[in-house]
Every structure is written in structure tokens, then in C-alpha cells.
Amino acid sequence: MTSTPVALTIAGSEATGGAGAQVDLKTFQQHGVFGCVALTCIVSFDPKNDWNHRFVPVDPQVIADQLEVITTAYPAEQLDVVKIGMLGTPITIQTVAEALEARSFGHVVLDPVLICKGQEPGAALDTDEALKAKVLPLATFVTPNHFETMSLSGLGAIETVEQLTEAARIIHERSGAAVLAKGGVHLPGDEAIDVYVDGERTEVLRAPKLGDGAQVAGAGCTLAAAVAARLALGDSPWEAAQAAKDFVTRGIEHRLSSGAPFDVVWQGA
Ligand code: PXL
């Protein structure tokens, strides 16, 4: 018998293993956290069409079935941390929101994946609005990237640490969640800057920009999954944010190249 912590990810599959549920499970495992998955969609990039997303949603009843069996197998005392990744459609968002309301989790880590290439713009807009209305209020920890930070805060441009901090504060005030807003490579200078805001502290996290301009996929999924894993291990949200930033920085340093036009994070580093 073991008292290994358990964490759940509600996420999509990205077949090549660079993003989504595959990244979440690898990250959980690397932290010594037992992972389970409720799969929301299947993404297959299309190498014949500029590596755009081919996106297939999982039937809402099948998502509900997965969440039913997971929460029955692991009661609240055992499974207290859920990470939410790509949901992809309004009906999926509705299904997941209902499950989160039916059974409370101590920590709900939301990676607010807003746009998915290959989806109809109209459908994506519905999805963004549903995510903001139904899932964001249930989150205890949110990890928006640069674009998502603009969208969730309503700020039109984020080009400085001060603007990133202001946006993170707005998102914190709207959601009540701890916010780790990621500047990534989008702020000028040679550092990848993230801002952490909760009710008590505002902190700036810095790491050197890595990758020589190469695109690295999966960093957002890895970061949010590492936050979830550290919370499952008993860290405070601020401790989890710092440890997750270190974990993803190491994973980017040891990134993997492939025939795809982007590198991916190596969680095993
Ligand atoms: O990185 C965002 C993301 C999350 N989840 C899945 C994805 C992607 C990006 O491709 O495919 C399943």
C-alpha cells in the first residue's frame, strides 16, 4: 500500500505527445503523483496542411462517464487536485462545469486554452465565452499565456511587466484564483517573465529566454500540470508556482526536436 497523491487531468489528447493529457501524465509521474485522465477531445496535427489542428471532440456522455468513474474510484479525501486543459466546445465546458460543481476539489488548476487552430472562429468564440463564464469562476489557480491574459483581463496590449501585473490582478479579482500569467517570449528583453498574483502577494518570476527563437510546444501544459502535481504534494500555491517554473525551464533546456515544425518540452529532464 502507498499513500501516493492522486491528481486528475481533464484534457485533450495530442497524438505526438507534446501537449495535452500525455504531457500532464508524464509531468504527474515525474513528480511522484499518480495521474488519471478524463479525455475531452483528440487532436491530430495535419502534416499535409501546415500542421493545423484536426480536432475531434469526445461525446459529452463519455466525458461524464469518465468523470463519474474517476470520482467514484477516488473519493475527495484521496483526489483533491484537478487540472483542466483543452476543453474545446461549449457542450464539453458545460459537462465539465457540472462535474466540478457536483464534487468539490480543493484545487482546480485551469490552463485556459482559448484558441485551437482549425476550429471555426464562431465556434471558438462561443467556447471562449463559455470557459470564462462557467469554468473560470470554479478555478483556484489559473495559468493564462500572453494571449489568454489579454483576453481574460480585457487589456488590449501587454508589453511590460507592469501591464502583465495589472492584467494578472484583474484576472485574480474576477476569478478569486491565484494567477500565474505567462509573458513567455512576448515581452521584450532576454528573460521569460511570469507574474504571480494571489490575494496576498504579487511576485515576478524570471528565467532566461531559451530556444534561440525556436517554437517550443507544451510548455503551458507542462507548467500547469507541474503546479497541480506540487499542490497534490502539499505545496502552497506560491511554492507550486516557483517549482513549476523551474520544472518547465529545465524541460525546455532539454527539449526534443522531431519532424514537426516545433520542439517539445522533455518532462523527464
Ligand atoms: O498547448 C495547448 C494544447 C492543449 N491540449 C491539446 C493540444 C494543445 C495544443 O496543440 O493539442 C490537446
TrEMBL record:
It catalyses: pyridoxal + ATP = pyridoxal 5'-phosphate + ADP + H(+). SUPFAM superfamilies: Ribokinase-like. Catalyzes the phosphorylation of hydroxymethylpyrimidine phosphate (HMP-P) to HMP-PP, and of HMP to HMP-P. Its EC number is 2.7.1.35. One of its GO terms (molecular function) is pyridoxal kinase activity. Belongs to the ThiD family. Coiled coil: none annotated. Keywords: ATP-binding, Kinase, Magnesium, Metal-binding, Nucleotide-binding, Transferase. InterPro entries: HMP/HMP-P_kinase_dom, PM/HMP-P_kinase-1, Ribokinase-like. GO terms for biological process: thiamine biosynthetic process; thiamine diphosphate biosynthetic process. Residues 16-260 form the Pyridoxamine kinase/Phosphomethylpyrimidine kinase domain. It holds the Pfam family Phos_pyr_kin. This is pyridoxal kinase. One of its GO terms (cellular component) is cytosol. It comes from the Bacteria.
